Automatic annotation (TrEMBL):
InterPro entries: Acyl_CoA_acyltransferase, ATP-grasp, GNAT-acetyltransferase, GNAT_dom. It comes from the Bacteria. GO terms for cellular component: cytoplasm. One of its GO terms (molecular function) is ribosomal S6-glutamic acid ligase activity. This is N-acetylglutaminylglutamine synthetase. It comes from Jiella avicenniae. Residues 1-15 have a biased composition (Basic and acidic residues). Residues 115-265 form the N-acetyltransferase domain. The gene is ngg.
């Protein structure tokens, strides 16, 4: 009972702590608190509310927010008073403030596995941080800002780096209160915690929070605060697990396009759209195009602008003809059409071939791919099959999705998705199959389930690894059974297909793509006469010309291709006059320069 009273007393002390009115401000002034303190963080400015004696001055500071930026007034004790000075321009952010008492915080015993935490150290790090920000729909920061502020004593940047690949997997920013605004309470705060949605390792967010807390603890800070959206249950669970408690501070923001969802209220139909429909609707709404959700569950919506109305299902619109759609629907027909256009295709036979023909095909190519002639999202596809028995099993599995089954030569390499809109390449991304890493005590099955939960959370429920015969075959091919314990550090591929819907991940390579691959994708799109398509190739490297054509998709997902402007180019195609004049002028000048050159 005594322990409970002591804990309750400590929590009450934390909740009540901080500047609270004129008396606190007077004491703070004597301790060196800066007046009207503002810190530029690149994505916007942190406006420290307790440093403003006059709420009108605080409101005016928020009015000075720059374009495409998100300023935040933090530590606002009397939000109703501040809002009364600009009720049409400002709003109360629906977030909670949490505080970690660094005097009682204890580091965790679990150390990062497969990655490590370090300081941001280069402009390339900054570029990767921006990529993660964009994937999480956060405001980006000019890479030069990170670099020029690397020695800023008020700002601290940490990143998580993959031990094997060197990829940046997550990031967090810290603000030292005393250095930022002369905080007399010697506090600190956490901002911009973001983890790559395709990161293969668990616990990255927790490791980043702990590293920042330990950083500030070592520098004598009394506490670390953060602001989190009220409905971000996953983040709140993490913070409470680490010992954060809620405190009575509020956040005020300015009404702008970035913050629109926070002050206009929920739209039930809009929220029910999947990520592939939502990314297009968001871009259309940003341009002032009228949007109407027709069937949220199916991804159907209607766009109207300038007297023109177009019905869409995700990236499939009325501009795609029924003929083009039927060509993509039948992989056998697709193959014939693109081959006639000079696109390289793999050798193929029918799944109805007899055992002798299948054996001969296997012997010739070593490995084969079995897939239904019709279908999408990787359903019924088996890759890397080496035996006649497994081939026949895969053919039967594929027949569950289509009566016609194809057996193709397996091209060793990576799966490349190219988004072609209006017969121009917009994005190119390597699609990698799901991989698990052993921790020395979890079974393969448990690791796959953990991976599925992370992929599902990162994609709004769109991605998970199926627990089916194909997954079991891939695990068995790696030398393990589903209930075996995977040794620490051991990595195995649990699915040979790289489709997002079966647990795969997407990695942008648009800037590294070989011209021959672009030409093949555009030639395939023109052969089918389809204005929006996802062309899938198997390649050895994005920088090499070697490839074979796999299939064309009439409804490619435009989400998860950050930082490429897939949704922007799609809306450009539907409504050319909605393109801002400055952008149209720049494109005209660019085309003119190319012709003159």
């Amino acid at each position: 009972m005594a322990v409970e009273k002591k804990t309750d007393h400590r929590l009450e002390k934390l909740r009540a702590s901080g500047p609270s009115g004129p008396a606190a401000r007077t004491r703070a002034d004597q301790d060196g608190l800066k007046k009207n303190a503002i810190l530029d963080c690149g994505w916007g400015r942190l406006v420290f509310g307790q440093t403003f004696a006059d709420p009108r001055e605080l409101a005016n500071s928020l009015r000075e927010e720059g374009p495409d930026r998100r300023d935040i007034a933090f530590y606002v004790k009397d939000p109703h008073v501040l809002l009364s000075h600009a009720p049409q321009e400002l709003f109360l952010d629906p977030s909670h403030t949490y505080r970690l008492d660094l005097a009682t915080y204890r580091p965790g015993t679990r150390r990062p596995r497969g990655y490590f935490i370090r300081r941001l150290a280069s402009e390339q790090d900054a570029t990767e941080v921006n990529r993660i920000y964009q994937s999480r729909h956060m405001v980006q920061v000019h890479p030069a800002f990170f670099w020029t502020n690397r020695d800023n004593r008020a700002l601290t940047y940490f990143v998580a780096e993959d031990e094997t690949t060197g990829a940046i997997l997550g990031t967090v920013t810290g603000v030292h209160g005393k250095r930022a605004f002369g905080d007399p309470e010697n506090g600190s705060s956490l901002w911009c915690l973001a983890v790559d949605p395709q990161a293969p390792h668990p616990g990255i967010g927790e490791s980043l929070v702990r590293r920042l807390a330990e950083h500030f603890q070592a520098r004598g800070c009394a506490f670390m605060d953060l602001s989190v959206m009220h409905d971000n249950e996953q983040a709140i669970r993490l913070y409470e697990k680490l010992g954060f408690v809620r405190v009575s501070y509020f956040t005020i923001k300015r009404k702008n396009e970035i913050n629109e969802k926070l002050f206009t209220g929920p739209n039930a139909e809009y929220e029910q759209l999947n990520p592939y429909a939502r990314i297009i609707v968001e871009e259309a709404r940003r341009r002032g195009i009228h949007t109407e959700v027709v069937d949220a569950a199916g991804g159907f919506f209607r766009l109207t602008h300038g007297g023109r109305t177009v019905l869409c299902r995700e990236s499939l619109s009325e501009l795609t003809s029924a003929v083009a759609m039927s060509i993509c629907d039948d992989k056998t027909v697709t193959r014939r059409m693109v081959e006639a256009a000079g696109v390289t295709v793999p050798e193929q036979i029918s799944g109805d071939s007899d055992g002798a023909a299948l054996s001969a095909f296997l012997e010739k190519h070593g490995q084969v791919v079995v897939k239904p002639a019709r279908g999408e999202q990787g359903r019924g596809i088996s890759v890397g099959i080496e035996t006649l028995e497994d081939t026949k099993t895969a053919i039967e599995a594929a027949r569950q999705h289509s009566p016609n089954v194809l057996v193709e030569a397996c091209f060793a390499g990576d799966d490349l998705r190219l988004i072609v809109i209006d017969y121009r390449l917009v994005a190119a991304a390597l699609r990698k199959p799901p991989v698990i890493t052993g921790d020395g005590h979890s079974s393969v099955r448990d690791l796959i389930e953990h991976l599925s939960r992370r992929r599902s959370a990162a994609t709004g429920g769109e991605s998970k690894v199926p627990m089916d015969a194909e997954t079991e075959r891939c695990v068995r091919q790696s030398g393990y059974a589903m209930d075996d314990t995977l040794p620490e550090g051991e990595r195995i591929t649990v699915r040979k297909t790289a489709n997002l819907h079966t647990g795969g991940t997407i990695h942008d390579v648009t800037g590294d793509i070989h011209p021959a691959l672009v030409q093949a994708a555009v030639a395939a799109a023109r052969a089918i006469e389809i204005p929006v398509t996802g062309i899938d190739l198997m390649i050895k490297s994005p920088a090499l010309p070697d490839y074979v054509f796999i299939e064309a998709n009439e409804r490619p997902g435009l989400a998860n291709h950050e930082p490429q402007p897939t949704a922007e180019r799609f809306v450009d195609l539907l409504f050319p006059l909605s393109v801002p004049f400055s952008v149209r002028a720049a494109r005209t000048n660019q085309r003119r320069s190319l012709k003159e050159g």
